[in-house]
Design a protein that fits this description.
Elements: H1 9-21, E1 26-28, H2 41-50, H3 56-59, E2 61-66, H4 81-95, E3 100-105, H5 114-126, E4 130-136, H6 140-152, E5 158-162, H7 176-183, E6 186-187, H8 213-236, H9 240-250, H10 264-273, H11 280-289
Parallel strand pairs: 1-2, 2-3, 3-4, 4-5, 5-6
Length: about 300
């Protein structure tokens, strides 16, 4: 989502080429991404990169999303069959490809019946325009609803869930992760560093991360934990951002965290994280610094 509003097309191309050379083969975006460049701008950059050829499209698993408003028109959003069909066509056009490997519902749409959603997705699969369907920001109950409805239609259903998940935000361990494990969904955590919170935010060199009022509030609320976190990373001799990604990579439920590098240094750090192995003692200390919510329903009932 940084490509376009924060990273130029040329720099985005460099990041994408370096990611491919580094062994990254899963690219995730959304049709709405583009920020001040306008909705669809990020997909357009990815499409222009793919159009350069060199087997780029054949080497990647391409994912995008549908749900968010694409204009101020009432039918240009959500998960109606109409919007799913039209949004998919527009994404294919911007991405300059004939198929999307993973088509994800960006959010739940309580106004759209599951039979309507799955009928639209089944049609796109039959037409060869998408290969798999995923979800994003679903509750555990939504995952169960979706897959039970798909089962009744003899359709594969969801294969992945993209959730907000990092050391300082572990709510999905209560319900979403158990649902994903039960139904065999891959888990794709977004914002693996909490928008920079876990990237060394207390370090003077990263003081610019705390310019926003929201970040200052988050830092002050978690300051004792962040001090312990950054001290532990110094002991490990690793950058906090790399340790944060390494923790997710070692989580048994995680398929792959979604990293959003704006610069080559950030990409190189994410690649380095794949070489870090955290010992059982370090994992236990991380659990002590950033405790999870516990197991459902025992965490809130008996």
């Amino acid at each position: 989502m940084n490509f376009g509003p924060k990273t130029t097309e040329s720099d985005s191309f460099d990041l994408l080429d370096a990611a491919l050379d580094g062994g990254i083969n899963f690219l995730d975006t959304a049709n709405q991404y583009g920020g001040d460049k306008g909705v669809g701008a990020t997909e357009t950059i990815l499409g222009n990169w793919l159009a350069q050829g060199g087997d780029r499209r054949e080497q990647i698993v391409l994912a995008t999303k549908v749900h968010e408003p694409m204009s101020d028109r009432p039918n240009d959003r959500g998960l109606s069959a109409r919007h799913i069909r039209l949004a998919c066509e527009e994404s294919l056009r911007r991405l300059q490809t004939d198929h999307i490997d993973l088509y994800q519902m960006h959010h739940i749409d309580s106004a759209a019946p599951w039979d309507e959603i799955w009928q639209a997705m089944e049609t796109l699969v039959a037409q060869g325009k998408i290969s798999y369907v995923g979800s994003s920001n679903f509750a555990g109950w939504n995952v169960a609803q979706a897959n039970e409805a798909a089962r009744s239609r003899h359709f594969l259903g969801l294969v992945s869930e993209q959730s907000h998940f990092h050391l300082a935000e572990r709510t999905i361990e209560l319900e979403v992760i158990p649902a994903c494990e039960s139904y065999g969904l891959g888990l794709l955590p977004w914002s693996p560093l909490g928008g920079g919170l876990l990237a060394g935010v207390l370090d003077a060199e990263n003081a610019d991360r705390r310019l926003s009022a929201q970040m200052r509030t988050r830092v002050e609320a978690l300051r004792p934990q962040l001090e312990r976190w950054e001290a532990l990373c110094r002991q490990l001799g690793e950058a906090p951002a790399d340790v944060g990604i390494a923790w997710l990579l070692q989580h048994p439920a995680v398929t792959s965290p979604i990293v959003g590098p704006r610069t080559m240094d950030q990409l190189n750090g994410a690649l380095h994280a794949t070489t870090i192995t955290l010992s059982a003692d370090v994992l236990a200390e991380l659990d002590d610094i950033f405790p999870g919510p516990g197991q459902a329903p025992e965490a809130y009932a008996w």
